[in-house]
Amino acid sequence: MFWDPDYETIDRSELERIQLERLQQTVRRVATRVPFYKQKLAEAGVTPDDIRSLNDLRRLPFTTNADLRDNYPNGLLAVDLDNVVRLHTSSGTTGKPKAIFFSAGDINRAADLIARCFIMTGVRKGDVFQNMMTYGLFTGALVMHYGAEKVGCLVIPAGPGNSERQLLLMRDFRTTVIHLTPSYALYFAGFLGKNGVDPKRDLALRRAFVGAEPHTEETRRKIQESLGIEVYNSYGLSEMNGPGVAFECIHKTGMHLWEDHYLMEIVDPQTGEPLPEGATGELVLTTLTREAMPLLRYRTRDVTSVIPGKCPCGRTHRRINRITGRTDDMLIVRGVNIYPQQIERVLMSMPSLGHNYLITLSGLDEMTVKVELAETAFDGSVEHLVQLQNQIVEKLRAEILVKPKVELVQSGTLPVSEGKAKRVVDQRVL
Ligand code: DLL
Questions:
Q1: Ligand 1 binding residues, C-beta < 6 A
Q2: Per-residue DSSP letters for 296-313?
Q3: Residues 6+ apart with CB under 8 A from 348
Q4: Would you list the DSSP string of 103-170?
Q5: CB contact at 8 A, 43 and 309
Q6: What is the spatial distance between Cα 131 and Cα 129, in angstroms, rounded to a whole number?
Q7: 318, 378 contact by CB (below 8 A)
């Protein structure tokens, strides 16, 4: 079933016609209303009339994270402030936040895209949606909330944390769908286990939407198995309305990116040159329908690739692979490039290990991986622990080519964050 069948299964040639029309409108709007873009387009020697085909996209300038910060608070607004109805911000690792503005139309379109995602995974009116993401300046909770209401779900705006209360709400209101970060999902699964709750027996949960941070297929499997539910990957970023940019359908073979609202490219992160279909690189997105704050060729820094071929669900919007990391979260340890996701993949595939881990870099270039044991793993024998530890070291070395120190800790002892998980602490004296 579809929320918006005309658009979701649209013919590719018709989709491209709409994309071009919307791109032309977007370029025209920013060229006349946003001084930053007026100048950038002039520097690139492009006028709105030069955009005659989708291939002309590559003539447009990129927009970066730094451009958003430099234009803070409202330098990128394309409407008068009194036509803005909502502000979200996105905090990065450093300095000023990025301000993201929404017009009433933007909110409505964002909610519609979420409704597509919900219906696509089988959620219907009558489902009970417990939103365990952070409400507030973060887009994660509110944007999903509006979409869920559109579908007709009963929405429980629980916010994150306080697992006891989450469980109470889930039990009393027979929650069927939850939305949370994958790291909190892992923690929550552990919490249920510790409290003797068998989700299949005691709860009505059917689905979880997880997103806002990178995670592996192994993590998804672990959440699915421990909660006994279907878990769908949800991708988005504040600059593109938040969640609802790309989402998995029931086939779980990549995330459909809603191409009637976002134009995607995969580029070489070093040169910015577009890569051929199927190649892995940095995702670059152009908004096609944002009114308050359109963005041209936004460098997401997220690494992915387009999955070739058609999806059996019938949707014609192309799918992207799970985000493997960000171009800027690569660690360089003793000269070797390592993505934290590689480490997660190894840890989450081992049944003796629990739900949480932390990578610490210290001294000159020492890597320590602390990982929690599964509840059932410890039989009290030191020998068993040493064996397990060595096994993890060897598996990690084979994956990342660097030998880390591994510390096994008891379940529930590593820090848990309410929002996005912090998996790496870098204390190196470089
Ligand atoms: O995290 C929006 C969101 C909320 C998406 C809830 C999904 C669910 P930001 O705080 O601006 O917005 O962070 C965006 O988070 O560029 C990615 O690096 C990362 N990210 C988001 N979803 C995923 C995902 C929201 N499914 C940044 N897999 C993005 C991997 C993700 N990384």
A1: 90, 133, 138-140, 211-214, 233-238, 242-243, 300, 302, 323, 326
A2: SSEEEEEEE-EEPS--TT
A3: 216, 218, 219, 221, 222
A4: -HHHHHHHHHHHHHHHHHTT--TT-EEEE-SPPSSSHHHHHHHHHHHHHTPEEE---S--HHHHHHHH
A5: no
A6: 6
A7: no
| Helix/strand/coil for 337 | strand
CA of 237 to the centre of ligand 1 (A): 5
Pick the CATH number of 331-426 from 3.40.50.12780, 3.30.300.30, 3.40.1740.10, 3.30.70.2740: 3.30.300.30
Q: How far, in Å, is the centroid of ligand 1 from the Cα of 322?
A: 11
Residue 269 amino acid letter:
P
Q: Is the pTM of this model over 0.85?
A: yes
Atom 28 of ligand 1: nearest residue by CA position? 214
Domain borders along the chain are 1-328, 331-426
Ligand 1 centroid distance, CA of 323 (Å): 9
CATH domain 1-328 topology: Rossmann fold (3.40.50)
Determine contact, residues 346/221, Cβ cutoff 8 Å. no
- Of 177, 58, 193, 203, the residue nearest 121 (C-alpha): 177
- For residue 326, the surrounding DSSP H or E stretch is strand 325-326
pLDDT in tens, the chain (430 residues): 999 999 999 999 999 999 999 999 999 999 999 999 999 999 999 999 999 999 999 999 999 999 999 999 999 999 999 999 999 998 765 567 899 999 999 999 999 999 999 999 999 999 999 999 999 999 999 999 999 999 999 999 999 999 999 999 999 999 999 999 999 999 999 999 999 999 999 999 999 999 999 999 999 999 999 999 999 999 999 999 999 999 999 999 999 999 999 999 999 999 999 999 999 999 999 999 999 999 999 999 999 999 999 999 999 999 999 999 888 888 888 888 898 999 999 999 999 999 899 999 999 889 999 999 998 756 668 898 999 999 999 999 999 989 999 999 998 899 988 888 889 999 987 5
User: Closest Cα to atom 12, ligand 1: which residue?
Assistant: 237
Q: How far is the CA of 214 from the centre of ligand 1 (A)?
A: 8
C-alpha distances (whole Å) from 352 to each of 108, 199, 377, 411, 416 are: 46, 21, 5, 11, 20
